[in-house]
Amino acid sequence: MRTDARSRDLVIVGASVRAVAESARRAGWRVHAADLFGDLDLAAVADTVVVARGGAGRYPGSLVAACRRFPPAPVCYTGALENHPDVIAALARERPLLGAGPEAVRTARDVTILATAVPAAGLLFPETRCHARGVPRDGSYLVKPTAGAGGRGIDRWTVAAARRPRAGRAIWQRRVAGTAWSTSHAVAPHGAELLGASRQLLGRPWCGARGFAWCGAIGVAVAEIPRPLRRQFDRVGTLLVGLGLTGMVGVDVIVDDRGRVWVVEVNPRPTASMELVERATGRSIAAAHLTACGVDAPSSAGSARPRNDMPGTKAVLFASAATAIDPGLPVRLESLAAAWREADDGWPAVADIPRPGQVIARGGPLLTLFAPRGAGRDVTALLRRRAAAIAAVLSPPAGAAARRVRPPSGAP
Question: What pLDDT, on a 0 to 100 scale, did the predictor assign at position 5?
Fold first, then answer.
């Protein structure tokens, strides 16, 4: 049953919520947000922002306490709360939950269930084990934290990796050679719609990322996806409906050299790469999420400005060393980004702008950068040039003070 949004208030929580908050604001919602960072551009679109780090309990449990400071309103969540279904359940006890419930999340994240459900949907799932006994230590398997996000903590399983201490539970998954993709689906009880896809950027040194860490995406429009691949991506949507999920859902897949799709991970919430879909098509990802959950956008909904149906590129830049955010950084970034805005059809080229007074810890996210896709094979050329320009303005004036540390975090 569809519900009209009589109240324009919406609560959004997660590790980083800026992208969904901006989308919801464009769709006419009055946003109240809680995340780890409270970035400047989040504060610009949200009526209320709470930095849910420390204070009443540790993250992510602190999000529940943070929500009590907001007016009565539905709540939706972003990454990486799929690793904390108990927190999702706690949120749902206090507010209407718009998104996958805790039991559906547990199902979607259970590799023993996926090992059966994925082949039943006509797709492939890598051999996955829940213990290291008998797993070859030759790099043919990956070891992954069960509560990971953004590719952090993933390693090739070798003799050396087996000797390293490892915190928390893990799985061992056979490595599949191919191209890493992410698919974006609006999932409702009656079916799923593929809204877009992206090729993932992993461990790029120019982003300050290493290993398998997610650091960006190259948008791909639905019309650009080859038909055999599109049919398999549609089967992914059927899989998500069968898992009982609701709302925007992202799925990490590998496309091998034979064009076959291997499902690697299900992220049962809006993901970081989805804003490339909104920038290309003008379709609000937040509105698509809420509509799939049975809630219409407020009548005052605005519309995003599309960029000629051509998806762009996105990168998250990480700190290679502790980086102080001086008071002049937002001004320097705006001066640089203003020259890029026209080429980007008015969309901001820089996002997730940290608050002055922070120190970004080594390996922590500095900011997010966007650029149109380049021509030919080198589709990230402009993105890399912009990343180099950003690096030049990140150097603060001598003697700039810093007080607070922004921890490493993030989820695609």
Answer: 46
